[in-house]
Structures
1.
Amino acid sequence: MNRILLHVLGATLLAPAFTNAQVSFGGQPLGLDQAYLPAPPLVVMPEVDANALMVEDEARIASGVKGPYRFGFNHATDISTENSGAWTTLPNGEGV
């Protein structure tokens, strides 16, 4: 039993020395450097009227309608990559 435990322990301690997940070239992506990228625009959604939603849920349950529980609220928006966000050209010519 001790011999098996010793082999398992040895394999566990030596295994990281023989593994290599990715070759690293150093540095960091330009996108992580805030000197190149401005702060992204922020879209603030209107506050959700939770009390009104709970009244709706109670009325639905009282009427005997069965269905899934509400877990969120859909805001009507017109936000897309075409009309929102910020595109930046990095010094190397790449766009992000």
2.
Amino acid sequence: MRAVQKELEQSGILAPSGGRQWSRTTIKNVSLKDAYLPRPRDGLKGLILPEVLTGLDVKRCYGITWFGKRRTRYAGLGEARRVELAPRENWVAIPIDLSGAGLERGMVHRARAAVEGNRPHAKVGDRFWPLSGGVLYCAERGRAMICYRTAKSGGGYRHYYRCRPGITLAVCPNRKSHRAEELEDCAAATFKHYIDDDKLLELYDQQPKNMSGAWGCAVALRDR
């Protein structure tokens, strides 16, 4: 995705927001959208209304955009607005003509497989956070840990990992903040003690798609 981002920006192609900089999250979301997955007309059966299907050209291919995928509601009088995913049966499929777009179904599936489970690294200050991006998880809630920093009185910052504060999610009973440098050194020493870099990459490649990064490798090490 970094290479795609660089190519788009150097080619002067504007992002959907109109800016010159592309977010890797945006690029990932594009590859996962059904609007960019070409289907033959007959592949839309059961997704769109029969009267809409009959009006489509059998020689063309189509993507799908979903209307009503999210809904807005208020928990109570004076409460903040909440946006949530609507029940799947309430979504309405709208076909989009993708003929001439240069998209191939197999190519889109390969792109999706390549980015499945990817999470961007944290962007807190100018520091690289090696345990972010879906590597470090909370043992209490199983959620990816977040990164933050606090300013020192004499200048500079202290860096921490902690479980994500509960807003819409359940509040984690473990509210401890862990010093980033100590936790990163501990993680590096743990993996170095058990396995070399080549074997770690091999285990990473073997993990199911629903297990992210070093977390999946740690499970593999435990099982062995």
3.
Amino acid sequence: AFEYNLVKWNGSDWVRAFPNGLATNAYNVINKMLVYQNELFLLTSNNRTLVYDGQSWDSTRFDYTVGGSTFTSNFTDAVLFNGAFYGCGSFLSVVGGNYVFSNFGKWDGTQLSTLPSPYETINRVGTDGTYLYAIAKDSTGEVYLGRFDGSNWVNYAHLQSPGLGVIPGYELYDYNRIVSYNGELYIGGRFNQIDGNSIQSFAKLSGAPTNLTPLAPTNLQIAVFKTETDYVQLTWTDNSNNETGFIIQRSVANSSSYSNLDTVAANVTTFDDYAIASFTDYYYKVIAFNTSGNSVASNEVTVSIGSVGLTENALEPSVFPNPTTGLLQVKLQSSPKELNLKDLQGRVLAHFHAPSSSLNLDLTSFENGLYLLECVWESNRVSNVRISKQN
């Protein structure tokens, strides 16, 4: 019965481990148990996580209440890695007052943090003590053994392409467990093949793969800069350590007919496009590449360009002094509908009311560094003035 889905050995017999009223079919089958910081974590088949501290059970450890509704963050699989509790599943955390969802998370004993991943879904996780490994599927349906070093991901081994290598009736990527044994990785589950090889249900990774395409760049962002020559600047997150470079793709006036605009070298995460025209819509994507092929494309960004050149430059704000020790004078020829102070990662730090004249900004409470004063005009064109704060 479901009431006995957890038992313990008392020295002479097996006895029920759950207290009365807790162990019902609400928790169904227990798929995995881990001990972390003297607590027992139970991962159940109906996507609930139970935590036992030796005295009481906690079934709401990873729940959040948003707008009167309760959201449950669930570990479908987990592993101890680098002294922390990492897992895959469906997670929710609060970052800067905003609720962030992810399929990869970390519990450090106090806080559950959502972590970015380049994958659409992560199914299972394991570790060899040096790296964390995950069975992961990208947005095209390709399934990989992903490797995580604590900061970055790499597609470590290809497992299957969409529709291949599975036993009919089972999940697309039913690779159930990853374990390390004698310094080698093993995968068990229900499958017919791995990477085109006829291997059934139990496989060993033989040597480090060398023919892997890079992971897709993420978090592509865009800004327009008004200088002597107007240009569009792209920034993105590099998720790979095996790319040769990045392909910048652009589409004019629509989001369907992309062409290659330029390439940049490995580890470069910015690109400036000076080849822009007035009153034109541009769409951009970025793709990582190496000798084995291309990654999936990044997210798409778009921008609507107003007039390019001196006519619109005359409307841009001027700032003085720059660098500033804190007090900044801003002169405006026209009133933007938004005036924001942002960091170089594009995060908004402050909003300002912008009259159609001069105004003074007090930046003394901000740390020394580089910032962007962003103006959003009525035409939805965005321009940025770079500001240096120095004491």
4.
Amino acid sequence: MKKKNHTLIFVVGIVAIVILINLLSLKGFLRFDLTRDHKFTLSQASVDTVKNLNDTMTVSAYFTDNLPPPYAQHARYVRDLLEEYVAKSNGHFAFQFMDPAAAETEEDKAKRKETRRDIFGRPIREPTSVETELSELGLQPVEIRVIEDDQQQTKRAYMGIVIRYQEKHEVIPVVQNLSDLEKDMTSLMRKLTRVKEPKLGLIKDVAGPHIEKVSQALKQNMAVDAIDLKTEGEIPDDIDALLIVGSGEHFVETSAQKIDRFLRKGKSGAFLLDRYHIDPRSFQVQPIGPRSKTHEIFDLLKDYGLAIDSSLVADASCASLNMQENRGGFVFSLPVKYPFVPELMNLSFESPITKGLTGVILPFVSKLDIAQKAGLEVDILARSSKVSWLEKEPLDLNPRRNWGEANIEPDGPYPLLAQARGTLPEKEEKASEGDKAVPSRLVVMGSSAFMWDEFLSPANQVLALNIVDFMLADTALLEMRSREFNEAPLSADLSDAMRQAVKYGN
């Protein structure tokens, strides 16, 4: 009898503990991350962001219900990630997870039934009030393939996120890449909560090639101030980063020193410098102005260990130009391979500047000569292919050049794009002992032509924007890792009993 009482007390105790745990879980969120590299744990930058919120931030996740795999996994991961933010936010972070169809009114449901067909026979209808509201926010449904009634069909579904803070909002239109979702979320949160709009200083030759498309894209997210080094005393302190573009005609004797003093304050700079004036229509090479002035900026980069060579890189892995051919009175447009526009295949996947990019072209680019300097960590982000070579003066850039007659011995690859982080090397006249070195960020490329309106592909524009984002982003965001969701297969050396235990334990 006593044994039965003990058993009953034990069972009741276990039930009471389970009930207590469930009651406590209603007030909080607890989850253990047992993955080897903590894939499901917020990075410190994310924790700091939500902990330091001064007002409530609200996230609305719009996901259509009953999504098929793999999209159902996206919805589950987003919900779990948002729960993690809530748990670390000190009560200043909230979210709602909703299916847009569930918010439709009776009038909206009636609109869904009022379909007609366009000239191609496709069914169309008026958007519902919910669809209109989401469209104004920047969310559009995407087409996904599903299996219904034993048939493959196309379904319109929402998989987007809206982040609201005070009077502002930011949008992730479609959740596609889970590995970068936390980084994207935290980046947008920081953008919403920052007090001051970032300011980019643009140093370029007014008479140089046009980069209007890139400039307009940059102005959508930041202030862009044109800086004339010929008239400016010092570069203003309210500039957060410099974008230095062109072949040096806009430099004077003191330009390099002004830029150096600016960078040593812990600021960032991207040097996208051309060794030659090249007309993108005639392909004529024009001489550069007074070398004593122009080359000071190249000498400055050499002092940093990031020299730009005076030759041009030619690459058999290249883009084509459409050239007009007149044959028998008829004009044809024919694609012609042009080695002076290398198409990049060797891009780093470790840097936020180049990760995931394809289709980037770098017209009229010079190679970089890297010399590692103490305190400055340099990473090469892009290289030419193995079938690349160097062309030296006098340069023949004629697209119709007979390459079969050229004596070419490819000896690539060559470094074409580099990023650097750390303290800049000291000059010969060393700073006083009281001065403290402040880390800076640099990006260097021997060409600005990839940003010219004539060569600006979608991939090139993304590269330009990424370079600026790298310079303006805070260190914590740059150090956030991407989360790779790879399979973790069981070891073949496990016994059958252990393998079954792990499977059923999970």
